[in-house]
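Final report, Chapter 2: Outcomes

The project's central promise was a pipeline that accepts a single protein chain and returns its three-dimensional structure in a standardized token representation, suitable for archiving and comparison. That pipeline is now operational. To close this chapter, we reproduce one record exactly as it appears in the project archive, with the input sequence first and the structure output second.
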Amino acid sequence: MFDNSLFPSDKFSRRRETVFLLLSGLFVGTLAMLNILGITRLINFSFTVLGVTIPFKVFIGVLPYPITFLCTDFISEFYGRKRATRVVWTGFILNIWVIFILWVAGILPPVPEMNPGTGLPDPDNANYLFYQLRRFTFSATFASMIAYLTAQFIDVHIFHYLKRISSGKLLWLRNNGSTLTSQLVDSLSVVLITYFFTTAIRVPDGMHAARFLFILIFSNYFFKMFAALIDTIPFYIGVKFLTKYLDIDPLSEYRKKN
């Protein structure tokens, strides 16, 4: 029999739990998607600014990543640092779960014969796509777990630090300041770890490794920086709407001090 007592009866309490679940679900779902997509495809083009051609290279897994920082900013703003930290750890556990499932699936029989040179089945083997995706996901998740934990905790810490020193004012500062700093750490970490500790990133023939890595890091950070600046608009709109919808004043502790 369904037990209604397990759920809050107050309208605003139900809304708060529902929004928290939606934000957390979007956060962990995006993490799972970006780790599986990971480095399966390199987006590569260039654009010209003031007569200077600038190369732009990002792996497809980077595209949904900025939404995770928007989610933790919303959770930090309305639910506090502790809940935001718990969601970050939940995402970390999810990464381990994805790796575990792929590992188990790869060792269950029948395991195809692997090519010594590539560590993969022959391309015409029906299992080739799975094992290629498995290797890419292993490599991307190993790097992203380290970068992710570091960047997300930096994001949460700086967000609350800026909120505290500004007495809850300057919403744009804590949103952008926390995200831009943490994304720089993330861009450096994920590219360098993936390159030096896995074989997933291959430098194109004729290009120096340092130049290629710089382009990857710059492209990653430029995209994330642009996304962070753009998401200031939905963050402002979301905070204004959710303050009334959830009946939560995120600045109440600062109003009491004044």
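Archive annotation: Residues 1-7 have pLDDT under 50 and may be disordered.
This record, like all others produced under the grant, will remain available to the consortium after the project formally closes.
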